[in-house]
Amino acid sequence: FLNHEPCALKAGRIADRQAEGLSQSRRLPGLVRLALCFLFVCGLACESRAESPANILILHSYYPTFEWSSNQTSGIITVLSEQVPNASFNIEYMDARRNSGEVYLQKFAATIAEKYRNKKVDVILTCDNYAFEFMVQQRDSIFGDVPFVFCGVNEYLPSMHKGLSNITGVA
């Protein structure tokens, strides 16, 4: 764990800079720092020495121009790119603030399943509640038992992912 502490501190500093414009209650450093620690401590991001790239899927609850999502993405990619130089990032946005309902979620799940049907994903990182809940419900059917790291889950309870394996994160 101590070997990964500098990475976590660096992630926190980057997230601090990214979130300077956000109110104190909306700052990211703790979420990004701890989520990245989990990635490395649990060995979910693949070894940086691996010959094939580490394929990392980042699933956001919101949309790309939402400042919160943009800052999370920037911090995550900056730190992981330094620590896992051969990482390949796929970023998906649920746009859950503007779209919701069972039909939308079914179509979103079908789109993700088709998009990643022939792509290897080594780890999934979800940001905020909608993405977390979506992956809890759909991960096994779309990705199998791919490791899943979450951050930013409000009112988190361990029972929210009861029965799932290869899952960790910070609320």
In short:
This protein has helices spanning 5-18, 29-41, 67-83, 102-115, 129-143, and strands spanning 55-60, 88-93, 123-127, 148-151, 167-170. It is an alpha/beta fold. Strands 2-1-3-4-5 form a 5-stranded parallel beta sheet, with helices on both faces.
Architecture overview:
There is one protein chain. α1 (5-18) packs antiparallel against α2, α1 runs antiparallel to α3 and α4 packs across α5 (129-143). The longest helix has 17 residues, at 67-83. The protein is globular, with a radius of gyration of 15 Å. It has helices at residues 5-18, 29-41, 67-83, 102-115, 129-143, and strands at 55-60, 88-93, 123-127, 148-151, 167-170. Residues 1-28 and 44-49 have low confidence and may be disordered. The chain is an alpha/beta fold.
Q: What overall form do the CA principal axes indicate? A: globular
State the helicity in percent bands. 40-55%
Low-confidence stretches: 1-28, 44-49
Strand content: 5-15%
Write the SSE topology:
Elements: H1 5-18, H2 29-41, E1 55-60, H3 67-83, E2 88-93, H4 102-115, E3 123-127, H5 129-143, E4 148-151, E5 167-170
Parallel strand pairs: 1-2, 1-3, 3-4, 4-5
Question: Descriptors for this entry?
Answer:
171 residues; alpha/beta; five-stranded parallel beta sheet; 5 strands; 15% strand; disordered N terminus
